[in-house]
Write a structure and sequence with these properties.
By secondary structure, the protein is mainly beta. 2% of the residues lie in helices and 42% in strands.
């Protein structure tokens, strides 16, 4: 069983510009036809996404690299022994605006999550334990990197729910699995299973 995610989409404070294949700009929307729409009728909790989370492998000790400010990304890494790092970048060098990320990482109720810490965070960024087994990172990422690290039970499966400017955005999630860099997730939330503890 999974801990309940307290993942209410926050107010949009900033945005990123994406140029679609047809050359059209999408500043705040990030809208795809398959995106989850909370609608106007949710009170305390958002409706759950339509699809079940996919489980994917994440290579133990594999590191992802990206230039700060050159592209939008949510990067997931796992180190042997149970240490996870989730970090973000934005396309601020070209768009001139920051990306607002809200990331929730959780473990199933048979595993533990602890030692949560932020790295390279500014005053507008925060990381905390929002409930037992659920870590949260809010990052206003510009031409820099913002990161959250935490420790879990060795080999625990971690579920990531990722919002960009208040919208679920699986296409910006990156990780190494089976020696391949995966660019975009098949679901959001998504479950990561380490190749070794």
């Amino acid at each position: 069983m999974w801990s309940f995610l307290l993942a209410g989409a926050p107010l949009v404070l900033g945005g990123c510009i994406i140029v679609d294949d047809d050359g059209q700009h999408d500043h705040h929307g990030w809208h795809d036809e398959d995106d989850w729409d909370n609608g106007d009728d949710w009170d305390d909790e958002p409706a759950p996404p339509d699809q079940d989370p996919w489980r994917v492998s994440i290579d133990t000790d594999a590191l992802v690299s990206s230039e700060p400010g050159e592209g939008v990304g949510i990067f997931v890494e796992y180190a042997a022994g149970g240490t996870w790092t989730i970090w973000t970048t934005c396309d601020t060098n070209t768009s001139r605006v920051a990306c607002s990320f809200d990331l929730y990482a959780s473990v199933d109720t048979s595993s533990e999550l602890f030692d949560i810490a932020g790295s390279e965070l500014e005053r507008t960024d925060t990381t905390r334990l929002v409930d037992e087994g659920i870590a949260y990172l809010h990052a206003e990422t510009g031409s820099d990197v913002d990161a959250m690290t935490f420790t879990t039970t060795e080999g625990a499966i971690v579920r990531l729910e990722a919002y960009l400017d208040g919208e679920l955005q699986p296409r910006f999630i990156y990780w190494f699995g089976d020696d391949v860099l995966h660019e975009g997730a098949p679901s959001n939330p998504i479950d990561f299973e380490p190749t070794s503890p």
